Amino acid sequence: MTSSKQALAHPASSAEAAPGTPPGAARGAHGRGTPAGTDSWRSRLYRWDMKASPYAFVAPFFVLFGAFTLVPLLYTAWYSLHNVQLSALDHQTWAGLDNYRNLLSSDFFWNALKNTFTIGLISTVPQLLAALGLAHLLNYRLRGSTVWRVVMLTPYATSVAAATLVFTLLYSWDGGMINWILHFVGVDPVNWRESDWGSQFAVSTIVIWRWTGYNALIYLAAMQAIPTDLYESAALDGANRWQQFRHVTIPQLRPTILFTIVVSTIGATQLFGEVLLFGGVSGSKGGSEHQYQTLGLYMYDQGWIIGNLGKASAIAWSMFLILLIVAAVNLLLTRRLRKSQ
Which helix (H) or strand (E) element contains residue 91? Predict the structure, then answer.
């Protein structure tokens, strides 16, 4: 009787009577605890947060990229199709592809392109070879290896202005250390700023000094990722260190070497600060005879010295197309390397 009275006093709801129902569901049915509407609102908020949060995290990058890269890039493309002067930006006249035709028929453009290629070649090849050798030495257990790695990065951390100033003093015609060494060994001094190959060699040494350590650390990181089993197997087959370097290290470093070649090529195409500061008064011209004027200097001279922004924009887009070709060649070679492996 007592149990039946209690049952009548507290009738069981369908939610409580249903087997396997979560404990909080019955209380939710009576209005106690968290309301069902609140649960659904929280679940929607959670789903919205999971979908929108990644976009919110990456949004600052795309905002900055659009404001400082994409918009100037498109605006430069628009300028390259117009006749625009720096002194009269509001007066633009449609030129179509005339700026690009003028570039293709300009001897200064082809001279700048040739200088960019030669300076890039004589700076990239010795730089990467020296970086590969230094990385091979640092890959062995040396005392104070951390100190040597910091020393490798010191030139990279040095500003372009400071490094170029020091090398300008070293290559000075009167009193420079390089000419003093040449005179000491019986060689006539060289006017490094005025000679064709001498000026390009001097600029290339600045690039080599600044970037060799940076590439050496990249090679060192790739070398330390090579499995030691490969070296042990080569040593068991009787290979010495030089043979291990040729037949084990170099094949394993092919993707990394290709990456540094592409990055160095891009840097050589955009070379600007070293040649501008090395030339002094005639830095924007790349020397009195334009003997070391690169594409970056040619663009600067046309846009900010002469004031022809339309032609300077066409030069900038020509450099961009060259970089796209370099990237396409890199992609093609990378795919072939993957297939060969």
Answer: strand 88-94
